[in-house]
Each structure stands twice: as structure tokens, then as C-alpha cells.
Design goal:
α7 packs parallel to α11. The longest helix has 21 residues. This protein has a single domain, classed as Histone deacetylase domain (Arginase, Chain A), CATH 3.40.800. With about 400 residues, the protein is α/β, with parallel strands linked by helices. An eight-stranded parallel sheet has the order 2-1-3-8-7-4-5-6, sandwiched between helices. Helix content is about 35%, strand content about 10%.
Length: about 400
């Protein structure tokens, strides 16, 4: 890991866990509470460590830099109990109505924008909002557990305050369709999404031929991964696509979404990464932020539905990397945290901060195998996108 990390912060307050889609919904706010508790137990946050800064509430004008006023009004009405004929995707099984829906969602937006503001102002080099990363929300509808698209609003804020180029890398198992759509025809924003193929998984989009609008061809990059892809294959795809494009694009800021539903134990998808592999991606993105963006890095959370065994460890690693004090995957999970999990949720928590794997991959430059579904997808993405950036798509 690059040792050049400067000042950093995590934007959080407990009220952010009011983004609560219901007791049976897979995206439980418990995963946030457990992550922050684990980070504190590890000494990742707290006195002399990564500082926690308050999360402001986004006002309607800020939310409206991405979302239609009619959607904002409908969300607010739904959260007050007025649920009849709302439309806009509100009240679906994926994105049900919950009390104070607008306020909770605007709070997540405010947290991500504050992270962006802190980084862009130079107050910190790195900032994180693990409650953010709600990448499916569209300007005119809620979608896929996501009410407002905090990441898109954050990127819009950066552009409105002087950033000339922003790169967004999304490692969630689901395609980052909302962020891509908002900036589809904006050459100032490069969106890169590595996800399980839309042939098999929501939202059914994000293929190599999806390249951006006519004024921004090549600004959208999609790597559609086969089911079962593990650490070695995922990292092979990442390193074959992401670093060359980021180096060529040379963003002012790197914004990343760290959904950890790519883990083998996640109940909603079909990739096979470990916590160790996910941590390797975090380290790589940290180092790329220093290499290509002057260290300016905004990291958000995202999906992740194995709320005890996976999400807290993976995001505690993310916060440790943001703060410049990585945690060894072989380190013991603090006993106090494990006891809390047992008492509160009757679950047996992991013993170690990693899954005991050493994430390695075969470099793309060693050549690709045309009989491999994974390699064909990597090759297809490179062939479609790299020439648009003046890069050679061949190994």
C-alpha cells in the first residue's frame, strides 16, 4: 500500500442508520452499526485514529441537482404516510416506503457531499461514507434499495465546484447503473463498473458495448463478470481495465463505491470473492488515487447482505485503508465485538479479519484464454473502450 496517505475522515453519525427499509429487508442498517462498532474496537476510529465527522442533511436544492422535484416531493409524501398512487418506483418490494424516507435518504446524500467537500477543499485527502453508495437511484425513480443517488449528487457537487474530471469506480456486484445514467453523456466523468453479468443479475444492464452517449463515448466502462468469479479472476479483470483507464483519464478526484456483495457468502449474488480479495481491491484503489488524482479519494459503501460475517470486516478494512493504518487480515477480530454479535444477534462472528486467502491473479499481459468466459469479457471491454482513450487493447 502506498504510504503517502494524508489527513482523512469518515462522515458518520448514528442517525444515518434511520435509512431502514424494514425488518425483513436484506439491506439492514445493522450492517452499518456493526461496521462502526468493529472499527472502534480495532482502533481504526477514535482518538488518534480516523476521525468521525458529523453528517449534514442535504436540502432539497442539493438533492435536485440530480433528482427531479416531482420525485423528491413523492418521496417526502410517502415518508409521511401518503402512499397512494405515488409511482416513481416508490413502494416496490425492493424499495419499500418507510417513515421519514426523504429525510433519511437526504441525510445519506448530505454525508457523501460532505465527504466530497472535505476532499475537494483539501481539508483531508481521503474521506469515506459507508452509508452511501446508493448507486441504482435514477433522476426520476427509486430503484434497487436506493432512494436518492448520493454518489451522483456528490460527483455533481464536485463538478459544480471546479473539478474538471471525476473518475468513478464501482466494485459492487450489481451494475452501477444510476451513476452511469446520470453522467452518460458527460465527458468529464468516467464511470467504471465491475459487476456480475446483467444476463443473470439485477439490474440487467452494464455490458461492454455500453460506452456512454454521443458526446462522451468511452466515458462509460463495464466489465460483466461470469458467475462464480473469485479473487483471482476478479483482480485479473480489475487490473486489466481500471489502472490503464484511470492513468489516461487523469481525474482530479477518484470516487469509489465498495459494495461487498461480491463475497462468496452474500445471499443475493453469485460471485465468489473473499474479504481478502475485497481488501486487495481497496488497497489498489487507494494507491491509484495517489498515483492519478493527487491522493484525492472519496470512498462510499454500497451493497452487502451478509451483515455479520462479511460487511463489517470488509468495511472496517476500507476505513482502515482510508485512514492510512491498514489492518492485517490475519489479525484477530476483537473479542468484545464477537461477544456483542453473540448477545445481540445470536450469531457466531468470524475469528479473523480475513478469510485466510492470499489474493493473487495472473496479469493480463501474460495473454488471454479465448476459451475462458472471464477472459472473453475482459477482452471485449478492452476492445470496445481502450481505443476511445487512445490505448492499445491488446496485451
Amino acid at each position: 500500500m502506498n504510504a503517502c496517505t494524508g489527513p482523512a475522515a469518515v462522515v458518520f453519525d448514528p442517525a444515518l442508520t434511520e435509512y431502514d427499509l424494514g425488518p425483513q429487508h436484506p439491506m439492514s442498517p445493522v450492517r452499518i452499526a456493526l461496521t462502526m462498532r468493529l472499527a472502534d474496537a480495532l482502533g481504526v476510529t477514535g482518538v488518534g485514529a480516523l476521525p468521525i465527522i458529523a453528517a449534514p442533511m442535504a436540502d432539497d436544492d442539493l438533492v435536485a441537482t440530480v433528482h427531479r422535484p416531482q420525485l423528491i416531493e413523492a418521496v417526502a409524501r410517502a415518508g409521511r404516510g401518503g402512499v397512494a398512487d405515488l409511482g416513481f418506483g416508490i413502494g416496490s418490494e425492493d424499495t419499500p416506503v418507510f417513515p421519514r424516507m426523504h429525510e433519511a435518504s437526504a441525510h445519506v446524500v448530505g454525508a457523501t457531499v460532505e465527504a466530497c467537500r472535505r476532499v475537494w477543499s483539501g481539508e483531508v485527502q481521503h474521506a469515506a461514507n459507508i452509508t452511501g453508495g446508493l448507486h441504482h437511484a435514477m433522476p426520476d425513480r427509486v430503484s434497487g434499495f436506493c432512494v436518492y443517488n448520493d454518489v451522483a449528487v456528490g460527483i455533481r457537487w464536485l463538478l459544480d465546484h471546479g473539478a474538471q474530471r471525476v473518475a468513478y469506480v464501482d466494485v459492487d456486484v450489481h451494475h452501477g447503473d444510476g451513476v452511469e445514467r446520470v453522467f452518460w453523456d458527460d465527458p468529464r466523468v468516467l464511470t467504471i463498473s465491475l459487476h456480475e453479468t446483467g444476463q443473470l443479475l439485477f439490474p440487467g444492464t452494464g455490458f461492454p458495448a455500453d460506452l456512454g452517449g454521443p458526446d462522451a463515448l468511452g466515458s462509460a466502462v463495464n466489465v460483466a463478470l461470469p458467475p462464480g468469479t473469485g479473487d483471482a479472476g476478479w483482480l485479473r479483470a480489475f487490473h486489466a481495465v481500471v489502472p490503464p483507464l484511470l492513468r489516461e483519464f487523469a481525474p482530479d478526484v477518484l470516487v469509489t463505491q465498495h459494495g461487498c456483495d461480491s463475497h462468496a457468502d452474500d445471499p443475493l449474488a453469485h460471485l465468489s470473492l473473499t474479504v481478502d480479495g475485497q481488501r486487495a481491491a481497496q488497497v489498489a484503489l487507494h494507491d491509484l488515487a495517489h498515483e492519478v488524482a493527487g491522493g484525492r479519494w472519496v470512498a462510499t459503501g454500497g451493497g452487502g447482505y451478509e451483515i455479520v460475517g462479511v460487511v463489517p470486516r470488509t468495511w472496517a478494512h476500507l476505513l482502515a485503508i482510508v485512514g492510512g493504518a491498514p489492518v492485517d487480515p490475519a489479525a484477530a477480530v476483537p473479542e468484545e465485538w464477537r461477544e456483542h454479535v453473540q448477545r445481540a444477534y445470536a450469531r457466531v462472528a468470524p475469528l479473523r479479519m480475513g478469510d485466510g486467502r492470499t489474493p493473487e491473479h495472473r496479469p493480463w499481459e501474460d495473454g488471454f484464454d479465448d476459451s475462458s468466459w472471464l477472459d472473453r469479457m475482459i477482452h471485449e471491454t478492452r476492445m470496445a473502450v481502450f481505443p476511445l482513450h487512445g490505448l492499445d487493447p491488446w496485451p
